[in-house]
Structure formats: structure tokens, C-alpha cells
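C-alpha cells incoming
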């Protein structure tokens, strides 16, 4: 909980960065902390707005989650834990069938499982995760989450087309029109501009804001647990693992430090934070790439700035009028931001394939991705399997895992090997021969 002063404490030494265990003087540190609040704000409040969770409660638990993360990683890994988009689909589905309390139970179960995964990783490393979820599998699961959520944007597009599409335009233009921090706040910029468009059309009501108190406790809720929701939340665990490990690795590269020894602790912290949020009525949490972008732009990786951001976020949670104001965000604005964000989630999955150089000339990879994506896109309502009600994301994720591992095992047993090319062989004229190809599993066994 102590930091050494970097250089003169006011400026950053040319060619260097402010390391996690360093800080600038407190006025400069508070300024960087404010940037982190802005960076996480747009996405963090959008998740509870979409799912119907209390915004101020979610802000409280993002602050607490960040504190837990910093403590469990011994103040060595700078990261803000905001609301997880991977949880939107299972939360929406569970809320319809078991109310908000059932969704909170799913968040608690997800966090507990993530904590257990973290314990195992801390003892054994991440090799088993790479084998279970090679890039073709992980990329597919990430992509299908975004594509499955696409149907949620249909109502805003049809009922509030002007607001929805102008919000999209404002968001994408802000991404490239502004430099530095403003460019990284494109979601927040799109939200504000879309809000003004909706306000001009009379789509915003401030009655709830006028009735709300200035200071008060957040709205807390308790979870209930339902066995049939467990599989609905399982795919989100895979995404949280990938995000967490990937972000820790990225920060390590940026700071020129080996942070891999904190992978298990980071996962445990994320899991513990989600459990706590689920027991109090907040959204599940995850490490935020938006804040990593702020660090890259400012070259300040000090964990002290994240303590500032966490404290301010928790303070905002005790302003009911602020929460009521966030609740006035109209459907069209949420839909427009959803189009951008859900699309980005889908493309991030494709980026995992590209960065890992997944060979789709290999029928195993091709069928793994194709099967999972089609199921996730097609299934927009839950399908009953006995006591379980499984939606498109759960079914698509299960199919992705099963198809990849079954095909890999059978191919290995039969000695089938495909060359690394963009075109699969003609199996009728060129039947596979020779020893099993290690590249079928080994080359796909690396994380992006």
C-alpha cells in the first residue's frame, strides 16, 4: 500500500512509464484516477441499464471489486473491474424466468466457479485452460455471445429508428474524430449525443429524478438459486477467464514485467468480487480494457490511480438522484450503443482467431466455429432439456466445446492430418495418411 514517487512527481521521465508501485504527486494521481472513472463509466452504467439492475448499486460493487482486486494481487496489477457484458444475455433470460433474484444467484454461482478456477490456476498454471479452450473455441464463444445479443437491438431500431441510428453514428464517429482520452470515451460520447437527440424528441422523462433524494443508500437485493440457471451462465465464465488472463498479460507487456504469477490471484479476485456483487444486487464484474487504454495513453500504470477511481465510484453510489438520472437514458440510445458494443464483442472473437492464426482450412476448426455460431444465432428463446432451460449462448458454447474435442480425438485416433492451408483436402481423392498431426490440437492450443 505504498508507492515511490516517479521522477519529480509531476512529469513522466521521457521514454519511461509510471510503474504500478510508483505514483506521481497526489493532484496528478487524482487527475489520472478521474480519467479512469470516465473510461469505465459508459460501459459500466450501460450493463445495469440494459438488465434493469440498480445503477448506483452496480457502481458501488465495481468500486468494491476494484479494491478486492488490488488487495488480492498485492497492489501489483493495475486494473479496474467494471460491469461484465458477457453476463447480459444470461441475466436477461434468468430475469424473465426467475426474476432479478434468480439472475443474482447465477452471478454468485459464476463468481464462485471463477474463484475455483483461479485457485487451480494459482497452483497449476494456465496450461489446462489453453488445452480446454484453444483459440478457435475461445474465439467462437466470445463471438457467439455478441451475435446472440443482436436480437435485443431490433425493438429500438424499429420503434426509435432516428435515436438509435444517430447514436450509432455519433459513437463510431467519436472513435476516430477525437484523439487521446476523448477518442477512448466514444461510448460515453455516443451516449451523451444520443441522449440529446432523444431529449429533443420528447423521449426523456425527469419525473423520477425530481422524486429522488440527493443522498441515500443504494438499492440492495438478495439472490435466489435455481439449478436450471447454472448452464446459462457457464459460457460467461470462459469469457471472464480469457479477459482476465489477457488483460494481465497485456499490462505485463506494457510495464515490461512478468505478471503471470498473478493470473490465479486475478481470477480469484474477479470471482470473489462477482460473488459479493451477486449477494448485494450488483452486476458481475470483469477487468476493463477501456482502462488499459487509458494507461497506454497516459503511460501511468500506478495502482494509486485505481484506488482513487474505486473510492469515487463508491461515493457516487450514495447519490440516488444520480442513479435516477442514469435511469432516464431512453431505449433508442441503449439500442444504438448495443449495436456497437454487441458487434464489437462478436468481432473480438474473430480477432482472437486472426491473432492466433487459426486455420479454417482445417475442418475441425471450420465445423467447431460454424456449429457454435449458428446455434447461438438461431436460438433466441430457451429450449427445455428436462429441468434445464438453455438459451442460444449456452447451447452454442456447449456445442463448440463438444464439436472441437470430439473431432480432435477422433481425428487423432484415426491418424487424420490436414496440411496448414486455406483449402481442405479432397478426402475422396486424397484420403488422409500418416501419423496424427500435432498441429490440429497443439497449434490451436495457444491463447490469443
Amino acid at each position: 500500500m505504498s508507492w515511490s514517487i516517479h521522477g519529480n512527481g509531476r512529469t513522466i521521465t521521457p521514454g519511461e512509464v509510471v510503474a504500478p508501485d510508483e505514483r506521481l504527486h497526489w493532484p496528478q494521481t487524482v487527475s489520472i484516477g478521474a480519467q479512469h472513472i470516465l473510461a469505465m463509466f459508459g460501459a459500466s452504467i450501460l450493463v445495469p441499464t440494459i438488465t434493469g439492475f440498480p445503477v448506483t448499486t452496480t457502481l458501488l460493487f465495481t468500486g468494491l471489486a476494484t479494491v478486492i482486486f488490488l488487495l488480492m494481487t498485492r497492489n501489483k496489477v493495475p486494473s479496474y473491474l467494471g460491469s461484465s457484458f458477457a453476463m447480459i444475455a444470461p441475466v436477461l433470460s434468468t430475469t424473465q424466468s426467475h426474476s432479478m433474484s434468480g439472475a443474482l444467484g447465477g452471478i454468485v454461482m459464476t463468481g464462485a466457479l471463477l474463484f475455483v478456477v483461479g485457485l487451480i490456476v494459482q497452483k497449476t498454471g494456465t496450461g489446462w485452460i489453453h488445452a480446454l479452450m484453444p483459440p478457435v473455441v475461445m474465439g467462437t464463444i466470445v463471438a457467439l455471445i455478441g451475435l446472440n445479443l443482436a436480437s435485443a437491438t431490433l425493438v429500438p431500431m424499429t420503434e426509435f429508428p432516428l435515436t438509435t441510428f444517430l447514436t450509432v453514428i455519433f459513437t463510431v464517429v467519436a472513435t476516430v474524430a477525437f484523439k487521446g482520452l476523448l477518442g477512448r470515451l466514444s461510448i460515453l460520447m455516443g451516449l451523451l449525443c444520443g441522449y440529446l437527440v432523444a431529449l429533443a424528441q420528447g423521449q426523456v422523462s425527469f419525473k423520477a429524478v425530481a422524486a429522488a433524494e440527493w443522498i441515500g443508500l443504494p438499492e440492495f437485493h438478495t439472490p435466489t438459486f435455481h439449478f436450471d440457471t447454472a448452464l446459462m451462465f457457464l459460457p460467461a465464465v470462459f469469457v471472464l477467464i480469457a479477459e482476465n488472463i489477457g488483460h494481465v498479460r497485456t499490462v505485463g507487456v506494457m510495464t515490461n514485467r512478468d505478471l503471470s504469477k498473478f493470473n490465479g490471484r486475478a481470477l480469484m479476485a474477479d470471482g470473489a468480487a462477482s460473488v459479493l456483487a451477486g449477494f448485494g444486487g450488483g452486476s458481475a464484474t470483469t477487468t476493463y480494457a477501456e482502462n488499459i487504454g487509458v494507461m497506454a495513453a497516459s503511460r501511468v500504470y500506478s495502482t494509486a490511480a485505481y484506488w482513487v477511481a474505486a473510492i469515487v465510484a463508491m461515493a457516487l453510489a450514495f447519490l440516488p438522484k444520480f442513479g435516477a438520472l442514469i435511469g432516464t437514458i431512453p431505449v433508442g440510445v441503449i439500442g444504438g450503443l448495443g449495436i456497437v458494443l454487441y458487434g464489437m464483442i462478436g468481432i473480438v472473437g474473430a480477432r482472437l482467431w486472426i491473432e492466433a492464426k487459426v486455420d479454417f482450412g482445417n475442418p475441425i476448426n471450420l465445423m467447431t466455429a460454424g456449429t457454435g455460431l449458428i446455434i447461438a444465432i438461431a436460438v433466441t428463446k430457451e429450449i427445455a432439456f428436462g429441468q434445464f432451460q438453455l438459451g442460444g449462448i449456452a447451447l452454442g458454447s456447449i456445442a463448440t466445446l463438444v464439436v472441437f474435442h470430439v473431432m480432435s480425438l477422433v481425428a487423432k485416433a484415426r491418424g487424420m492430418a490436414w496440411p496448414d492451408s486455406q483449402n481442405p483436402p479432397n478426402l475422396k481423392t486424397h484420403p488422409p495418411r500418416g501419423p496424427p498431426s500435432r498441429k490440429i490440437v497443439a497449434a490451436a492450443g495457444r491463447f490469443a
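note: Residues 419-448 have pLDDT under 50 and may be disordered.
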